[in-house]
Design a protein that fits this description.
Length: 290
């Protein structure tokens, strides 16, 4: 549905707002989404507050989750497995991966259930449906900022201890890769959200798939240590350049090229466009399938 802000006269009736269904594949209604910024902020607050409502530690879980995972990875992969971390402190290496991957997977899993989780709202009143996944991107960005703050505290400590880590000239690319990461997660998430309206078991496949794909990124060991077919697989993963740029920017160690980053950006743009198109088509009649 779309809103048109103009007067329409029919007999003795006059309307200031007309709602019309989307009629074209690329009828994206971005202006309508922009006018709904207050509703987006309301959904951001809902997502942020409700996630850990009635929990003892509350927002502390935002930083405890990546921290506990980092401890496990440090012990299992860095200690027992003895995997290389490019000479970086193991805690910083694994924590940086969790900061990046946590945002990507958080946005992807949350947006993948947009239609199913919000059917009770969508069936009652009209509003731009895209406001929900956009609000998830923003609310997850708040969590990303908290985890980044935790990472910077550890970075400052290890730098003070003389660990040889340092900020690099790639620091200016961090906002770029955050946008790329958000676009990839949002695009893939709304593709899955459109598909799960008919195939609900895709939610379980997605949960398993995200964990599996993580091992095809430099979350466990750096790209420089990958060899043969496994290196090809990691380079094919569009999240690999994002993670490598992030580490190079903050830790001074990482393997990436401009072509790798352009590939990641191109994939993000393509999947986001595909996702938005699918989302706008499905939202017209998804209530018939819930």
């Amino acid at each position: 549905m779309s809103e048109t802000e103009k007067s329409v006269t029919g007999g003795d009736e006059k309307w200031d707002l007309v709602l019309k269904p989307a009629s074209a594949w690329f009828d994206l209604r971005l202006a309508e989404l922009w006018r709904s910024w207050e509703l987006i902020l309301l959904f951001v607050w809902r997502d942020f507050v409700s996630q850990y409502k009635q929990t003892i530690l509350g927002p502390l879980w935002f930083v405890l989750q990546p921290l506990l995972t980092t401890v496990v990875f440090t012990v299992v992969f860095g200690g027992i497995g003895g995997l290389s971390t490019d000479g970086l402190p193991k805690v910083l290496f694994y924590l940086s991966g969790q900061v990046v991957w946590g945002y990507f997977s958080g946005v992807l899993t949350a947006t993948a259930t947009t239609f199913v989780s919000n059917a009770h709202i969508f069936g009652k009143v009209y509003f731009p449906r895209m406001t929900v996944p956009v609000s998830i991107v923003i609310s997850q960005l708040i969590q990303f900022a908290l985890r980044l703050g935790l990472f910077l505290l550890f970075l400052a400590y290890f730098a003070w201890q003389g660990a040889g880590v340092h900020l690099s000239s790639s620091l200016w690319l961090v906002p770029v890769v955050v946008v790329i990461m958000a676009a990839q997660a949002l695009g893939l998430g709304i593709v899955f959200s459109a598909m799960t309206t008919k195939y609900r078991d895709l939610r379980f496949l997605l949960t398993f798939g995200i964990q599996l794909v993580m091992y095809a990124t430099p979350a466990i060991f750096p790209l420089s240590q990958a060899r043969g077919q496994y290196r090809v697989l990691m380079l094919a993963n569009p999240m690999t350049p994002v993670m490598e740029v992030f580490r190079h920017a903050f830790l001074g160690a990482g393997t990436y090229t401009s072509s790798h980053l352009l590939y990641s950006a191109g994939f993000a743009a393509l999947v986001l466009l595909l996702g938005v198109v699918m989302f706008t088509r499905i939202e017209r009649n998804f209530m018939d399938t819930v």
